[in-house]
Each structure stands twice: as structure tokens, then as C-alpha cells.
Amino acid sequence: MEREQIPDQTKPTKRVKVNTVADGAQDNPSHPRSPSPHQRKEKPTKPKTKFYDEEMIKNFYSLLKISEDQPKEEQVKCFSKIQFKMIKSLHPRIVSQLDKMGFERMTPVQTKAYPQIRKGKNVVIRSQTGTGKTLAYLVPIVNALAQRAEKVKREDGTYVIVLVPTRELATQILDILSEVARGSLINMVPGSLTGGENIKKEKDKVRKGLSVVIGTPGRILYHLRNTQSFNISPLSHVVFEECDQILDMNFKQEVNEILTYLKNANKKFQKVLLSACLTDEVNELIESLKDSNTDQPIEGEDVKDFSLIGFNEETSKVLTAPSQLKHFYISLDELEKIEFLIKVVYAMRKAKTILFVSTADQANFIQELLTKFETPFEAESAKETKTPFLTFPILKIHGYMQHADRKKVFNEFSEIPEGLLITTDVGSRGLDFEGVKLVVLFDPSSTYKDYINKVGRTARLNSSGAALSLLYPAEEKYVEKLKANCQIEAIEKAQINPFAPKFRYDLQIRKTVTAHDLNHLARRAFVSFCRAYSLLKDTECFYLKQLNLHKISKSYGLEGAKAQSQTEDPNYQHVKDSKQISRQEISHLEMKRQSAVKGMKRIASKQFANMEFM
Fold it and tell me: Residue 315: which pLDDT band, with cuts at 50, 70 and 90?
């Protein structure tokens, strides 16, 4: 028999609120017990959440000072008064083709580079991003080939070699060159030799003949060593595109070996270098190219020394950004960065945006998260069908992707009118995507030069654009250093809130990570962020222990996970038992990872899985 439950007399009785106003008094003001007008308070109505308010985009554009058209005074600065048709030495077919491409007037760097390259002088070109440096050397080189006494034939061999740091830049230059030369040099055949392509197919292209070769140093060196049909005897021009980045990527040994092959095959060829600044490595390369045996006097001038275009003693090592580019930053709590990123991406959904992250793992995770993030509804409207929040193209490019996939993404982002490209440092140099209005830097750049290169993907030529850095409160001192080292007049602190209604996006992020099984990607992204952040050189601004790593892990949707090592490697057991990340430990692990990469054996990210929750 069940016992009868006796109510607990010790518990306080629930207080009942008595309505002292008689029935009908609220609705009848003339009632004797009706409250006075100042006592009657209308219950405020809760505004409905409007996630698709078009005013958000207009407000966001105005806050970041982004306009569709560049002011006329800025357009004048981007172009000179000299038109291509005014140059008498330029082949008429090339002038006509440039006009069809929309290039009527020359930029300042083009006006300075053309006469020097036409005379056969070795030059080093420096200019801001998006000022037409590619055409600055392509136009005079194509013109020289077009006006040769003997017509260029693909069977003759290679006349021009262009060295580039990345495959994407090689593809872009090849497209521009093919368009410039169209109709002017029927027999000229340009081609690319880059890592990731099928070597057998490349050998077939080389055997048939490539008049102009554009490629990465490693792959060009391979064909110089192993492809007997690679004929460079008629070589007349060698171009080092973004040579400072080529040297930064540890291609110095390959470049020196390539130069040895070229000098042995042909002792007379013109050298054109393009660099953001004169670093010590670039100066060493210039000195190695100053060879009295290879540099012959032309037209009565000694070309042993290089002509510097865009350099002087005061600015040779100074980084500059386009004047029409607006710089902004916003200080965010560790829990809010990914949440704010979702809001920014949504507000810019009708424009092209590039997002820079530190690691490939972050790019993989953020792309999956944004693609699968569902429309955040409030509780009363949760009955509606779940739909993706961001419906426009969200693409990614990083160094661990297959070449075919990277090429596909590059072409797709070039053609679409709106979308988001998530990339690492791979997309920071030389790439020109038309219509990019905003560059978002999710993580701080490793160097000031990297910052200039990244933000230079927008505000190119006669277009406007903005750069937005997402910083933590402990990193705000970085802004003043950025202004001083990059010659930026002002970096405004943006007070941006595209979504007025309050919503727990962190809960929605966690829900998305759990529902779509993104925990593994989130762990890898968080660990790779910690690893990359710990290696930043400016420890005054960027020090891992200054950050609230628990909040950062929650922002990645990792709340509730346990700290547990997933590796049996004894070298990592000392990290397993520690409750805090040590900078020396992470540096040690990163050095081991880098040495493993050089040995073609990459350490799996699961070996760092115990670091994500402290």
C-alpha cells in the first residue's frame, strides 16, 4: 500500500498576488476604482526579429565607408594622362587588344616601367597592390616579341620565363597574357608549369613548344633537369613576380639553380623583378644577378646595375597601402569572434568578401560551419522550417587542397558577382579578384608585409574597399604599431552591430557543430589556431596566455568536451598531463611538425587534441 504523502509544512507557502482593481476597472476609465492615467502602463510589445532587413546592408556599407563607385579624384590618382595609343613604339594590334580589355590609360608604374624595359634594362619594380604591375612588364615584353624581325614560332623554344610563388598567380598571369597577345602574336604559345599538375602532360606541352613559360620555381627546375625538350636557348626575358615572397617561401636554392641553367644556356637575357620592398634577400638576389658576363651594354647604356622603379632611399623598405583603402578594426570578446563573423558575412551577402585565417584547419571548419549554420529563430518562431542562414557561395582555398580543386575555386570566385572566399596566406599575394568590397582578417597577420598584401585584395585600381581586423581586447595595442609600420593615416575603431536584436549565437553555433558532426573539424581548427598564435613574433601584442582559451574553445562550439589526449606518442605525454599551454611546448611541437613536413610526413592534428581545453 502506498503511503499518503504529507505536505512539507516547513516550505514557505506560495504568495498569491491579489488584484485590487475591480473587474472591468481596467477597461472602464470612469469606474470609481479605475487607476489613474499615470498608473496605467501599457505592456511593451516585443519587436520581431528581422534577419532580412535590407537597411542592415546599407548601414554596414556606410559604417565601413564602402561605396559602389570610386570618387573621381581617386580615379585620377590611379591613372596617368598617358594613353596606350600615344606610345608610337607599341604595336597597333596590342593597343587595340588593350582597348578591348578596357585599358585605355596607363597607370604611373606602367609609364615608368615601359621605356626602361623596352630599352632592355634590368629593372626592379615596386608599387602598391592593384596598380597594374602585371601589365607593366607584360606589355613591353609582348611588344618586343611582336616586333622581332623573325616571327616567334613555338618550335623555336622558350623566349620568356616568369617565376611566381603560387599556382593561382600563375593561372592569373597566364589568362592576362593570353588576352593581351590575342590577335597580335598568332604563333606565340604561352603555358604554365606548376606543382600539382600532371608531369606527363606538362612534358607533352614543353615538347610541342612553349614561347612563354609561367611557373613555380620547383616545377620549372624539375623540367630544366629532366625534360630534354625544354629548349631555353632563345631566352630573352626572365621575370621574378613577387620575388620577395618567392624568397620568403624558401625557394632561394631553387632560384639559384635555375639561374645557373639559364646562364649556361643563354648569356644574354633581360631580368625584371617585382617586389613589395627591398628586403635583404631581394638585395642578395639582385647582387647575384649583377654579372658582368651576362649584362651587356645596350644602346650605349651600361645595364650592369638595375633600374629601381618606385624605390628611393626613404621608402625602399616602407610598406604602403592604397590610399582609397579604408582600414577598420573592432575589439571583440573571445566568445564573440565567430558569432560576429557570421553577422558580418550575412550583412555582406550581396558583395564579394575575402576572409583571411591563419591555418587550413580553420578554413575547413569555418566553411562547414557557415554553410550548415541554420537560420536563427526566436523561441516563439521556432516552428518554422529550418533553412540555411547563408545561401550564397562560400568557398575556400588553402595550401593542402588539390591543385584541381584550387583552380576550380579560383575560377568560380572570379566569375561570381557575390560570395565569400575563405583563404590562408596562399591568397594574399598577386591575386586580383574583381569587385571585392571587404577583406576581413579573422586572425592577426604574422608580419606587417602580410597585412598589406592581404588588405590589398580590395580597393584595386579605380575601386573602393575596406579592411576589417577582428581583434581581442588584449591585441588593441597592435593597431598603433600597424599604423606606424605600414604608413596608414587612420585605422578607425568600428562600432558595428548588424543585428540589433540579441540572440545567443554561441548556442546556435554549438547546436550546428553537434548536429552536423563538426566536432573533429572544430578541434583541429582550435588547436591549429593556438599553434599559429603561439608562433607570432610580436609577443607584446600577441601572447597566448593573455587570451581566455576556454571562451575561444566555446566560440568554436566545443563547450562540454573533455581534455583528453588522443595520441600514444610518448613525446606528447608531458603535454597530456599539463593543465595549461606552455609557449615553449607549442613551439617545440611546431618545430617538430615543420621538420616532419620537410620530410614529406605531416604530423596528424590529433596529436594536439589534448591542447584544446584547459
Answer: low
The pLDDT of residue 36: 53
439 Cβ partners below 8 Å, 6+ apart?
353, 354, 355, 356, 454, 455, 457, 458, 465, 466, 467, 468
Q: Cβ distance 67 to 152 under 8 Å?
A: no
Q: 163 pairs with which residues across the strands?
A: 215, 240
Rounded-to-integer distance, Cα 39 and Cα 288, Å: 89
Rounded CA gap, 168 and 165, in Å?
Answer: 9
Residue 382 has pLDDT above 50, yes or no: no
pLDDT at 562 over 80: no
The Cβ-side half-sphere exposure at 419, using a 13 Å CA radius, reads 20
- Residue 321: pLDDT band (50, 70, 90) is confident
What would the mean pLDDT of 337-357 be, rounded to a whole number?
Answer: 90
CB 113 within 8 A of CB 80: no
CA distance 451 to 439: 11
Q: How many CA atoms lie within 13 A of 415 on its CB side?
A: 6
> Which SS3 state, helix, strand or coil, does residue 462 take?
coil
Contacts of 422 (CB under 8 A, 6+ apart): 355, 357, 363, 366, 367, 394, 395, 396, 397
Q: Which residues contact 1 (CB under 8 A, 6 or more apart)?
A: none
Q: Residue 450 in contact with residue 63, Cβ under 8 Å?
A: no
Cα dihedral 407, 409, 414, 416 sign: positive
pLDDT higher than threshold 80 for residue 597:
no
- Which residues contact residue 396 at a Cβ distance below 8 angstroms, ignoring those fewer than 6 apart? 363, 364, 367, 409, 421, 422, 423
Strands of 321-370 (E only): list them. 325-331, 352-356
Q: Give the integer Cα–Cα distance in Å for 607 and 518.
A: 18
Stretch (H or E) spanning 357: none
Q: Taking each helix axis as running N to C, give the angle between helix 505-515 and helix 337-347, from 0 to 180 degrees, rounded to the nearest 10.
A: 90
Confidence of residue 57 (pLDDT cuts 50, 70, 90): low
C-alpha cell read off for 111: 609609364
For residue 345, the one-letter residue type is: V
Answer with the residue of higher pLDDT: 119 or 560: 119
Whether 253 contacts 232, CB under 8 Å:
no
pLDDT of residue 561: 40
Burial class (CB in 10 A: 0-12, 13-18, 19+), 485: middle
Report the alpha-carbon distance of residue 178 to residue 196 in Å, rounded: 22
Distance CA 104, CA 78 (A): 13
Residue identified by cell 477597461 is: 27
Reading the block at residue 46, the C-alpha cell is 516585443
Predicted confidence band at 67 (pLDDT cuts at 50, 70, 90)? low
Alpha-carbon span 528 to 520, nearest angstrom:
12
Residue 425, strand partner residues? none
Phi, psi angle pair for 191, to nearest 5°: -160, 165
pLDDT at 600: 36
pLDDT at 588 over 70: no
Q: How many Å apart are CA 231 and CA 209, to the nearest integer?
A: 8
